[in-house]
């Protein structure tokens, strides 16, 4: 499965998860407009998970920095909007 299809599936799930997952508290929306900067978490096994989406790079980087500051051994990356 391509990264693009993963993003699409994650985009469909985010509205349902946003209130139930603490890492998603950075984004409050009813419908995610395109394009958005995304924050991804990579676990120890190399699996990647969409954590949040932001209208600007600065907001996405701020969210990633807040997550990293928690001290967990997780890798967070910020990616530009997909076309």
Inertia-based shape: flat
Give unreliable regions as ranges: none
Share of helix, binned: 25-40%
Rg of Cα set: 12 Å
Amount of beta strand: 15-25%
Class derived from helix and strand content: alpha+beta
- Average pLDDT for all residues: 76
N-to-C CA distance? 17 Å
The spatial strand order of the largest sheet comes to 2-1-3
Domain count: the total is 1
Q: Got a strand count? A: 3
- Write the element-wise H/E pattern from the N-terminal end onward: HEEHE
Number of helices: 2
Biggest sheet architecture: 3 strands, antiparallel
In short:
The protein is of the alpha+beta class and 83 residues long.
Describe this structure in words.
It contains two helices and three strands; from the N terminus they run αββαβ. The protein has 83 residues and is of the alpha+beta class. It has one domain. The longest helix is centred in the N-terminal third of the chain and has 15 residues.
Keywords:
83 residues, alpha+beta
List the helices and strands and how they pair.
Elements: H1 3-17, E1 37-42, E2 48-54, H2 57-68, E3 75-79
Antiparallel strand pairs: 1-2, 1-3
